[in-house]
Design a protein that fits this description.
The chain has 196 residues and is of the alpha+beta class. It contains 7 helices and 6 strands; from the N terminus they run ααααββββαββαα. It has helices at residues 2-13, 19-22, 33-36, 45-56, 107-120, 151-176, 181-195, and strands at residues 59-62, 67-73, 78-86, 91-98, 125-129, 134-142. Strands 1-2-3-4-6-5 form a 6-stranded antiparallel β-sheet. α1 packs across α6, α5 packs across α6 (151-176) and α6 (151-176) crosses α7 (181-195). The protein is elongated, with a radius of gyration of 18 Å. The relative contact order is 0.17.
Length: 196
């Protein structure tokens, strides 16, 4: 219950999403934008994400293929959110990346931190790309059988990713400041508990 409340507060307070994306004029039913916006037959969830970005005035780039990249400013940093539609697998993938220069000597401790954080998560997970030290939060939405993505599903997917990244970004900074993964997770867990 606390996790759900946090996500909803974050969506409304930090990344306010327009009411008309969530509720139709008849009061209460989710809209599937790709169908209601005149794209009958389309099950491409990227259209839904683009509509959310446009309504919020967020910068985004349509790569012309099966990917859209949003630029979203959070409290801690700016996030690049990659939405990828994997047609052959019928999977809608999100990867949220933020600037964090992880020097080689701190990567092992950062891996420990990521493992500790991932144990606490119900949705998605963090990874450390060893080739360049990039920290990424990833999650996916299965849309098997031609099921379209609703605006609400995409909003929650995005809100959850941003909420989790904002919540744990300070822990990554602790590790970069030569603190242990244990100290970093304790600091953000305590701070998160105190926000309730």
């Amino acid at each position: 219950m606390h996790r759900e409340r946090t996500i909803l507060l974050l969506i409304n307070d930090v990344w306010p999403l327009p009411h008309d994306l969530l509720v139709d004029e008849d009061g209460g039913k989710e809209r599937v934008l790709s169908f209601e916006q005149g794209n009958a037959g389309s099950t491409n969830p990227l259209e839904v994400v683009q509509a959310i970005a446009i309504k919020n005035g967020w910068s985004f780039e349509d790569t012309g293929g099966d990917e859209v990249v949003l630029l979203v400013r959070g409290r801690c940093t700016e996030y690049r959110v990659f939405f990828t539609w994997m047609r052959s697998l019928e999977v809608f993938h999100l990867a949220c990346i933020f600037e964090l220069n992880v020097p080689e000597p701190r990567r092992a401790e950062l891996q420990q931190l990521i493992a500790s954080i991932n144990e606490l998560l119900w949705f998605g997970h963090f990874d450390l790309w060893t080739s360049d030290g990039t920290v990424v939060f990833r999650q996916a939405l299965l849309l098997v059988g031609g099921i379209p993505a609703s605006a609400r599903q995409c909003e929650v997917m995005l809100g959850t990713a941003l909420d989790i990244c904002e919540r744990y970004f300070p822990a990554f900074q602790y590790v970069l400041a030569n603190r242990s993964a244990r100290e970093a997770i304790a600091a953000v867990t305590f701070a998160t508990a105190g926000e309730a």
